[in-house]
Fold this sequence. Notes:
333 residues; alpha/beta; 18% strand; globular
Amino acid sequence: MSSNISFYLCITKRQVIGATSSIIMDPRFSDEGLAFINLIMQSPPPENKFDVKANRELSESLHANVNQKLIETFKGTQKDELVNANSTEIPITIYTPVDVDTTKLVIFFHGGGWTVNSRRTHQTMVNMIADATKTIWINVEYRLGPEYKFPIWWNDVYEVTKYIIENKQSYGVDSSAKIGVAGESCGSSMSAALCHTLKNIDFQILFYGILDLNRTAPSYKEFVQPMYFLTPETLDWLTASAFDDMKDLNDPRVSVLLNNSFEGLPPCLLIAAELDPLRDDSYAYQKVLDKAGVKNKLVLIKGVLHGFFSVPGIYPKACAEAIDKIKEFMTSL
């Protein structure tokens, strides 16, 4: 649920060092995964590991530092706009690559447990995919908990997506262009849910999503050690930050696997991280999509942790593998 660097900020440096010194490291870790652990061990944590403001600031700083060499490499144009939605103005950033393909547009939602991260933390990830696919990607700044709890952030993404679909030509694509949604971690959950609630979404790209907030899949029990960073304690904190009423965890808008029907959904690409507590949610979603006859593909990126895609500065090989699969998927549509 928490996305990459942001969830590492919710545990202490002592926990990481203790885990890596007293527990045999999982041999499945790739060299890039181990490099990331080394980076976190060198990064001073907030004094209060569950301080929202401190975690947001540190996540912004770490993403900027890790991806520094990649941030200015986008070859196209970048434009910021505001969308009137849900009784407020929601900022979006539109990334249009050189030699753009005007037959597709993707609306993207960052991860961070509905509590941390922003368009800025994930701009490198979005830039790289837009460049590689030659398609327009729109990065959405929905509101976050604990200041704005469910359903506020859900209504933000619903109304922004609906507006963009209805006005897609104003964003540089053809009248017949296919519209996709994509998201990372909790942004993946929202993307999947939008496909159940909105018409005229043509495809979905889901990066290691949390798809059932009851967290009953086997991987939630497999990856509980601090070396995997997204600990049960962190997930509990993020849930409390994003929701007032724990009964809402069973709302299919946030626990997408609890929907009654999966028929008629758009084609779906699922990208899962091997060493991620959320991993098996992607497999469970693939299973229900298969049963419903929905075109889908699941790609497992081996040796990496939850959130790897937003830090390509640490995970260049893993991100390149994922981008190749995205290109293949979008070309097939």
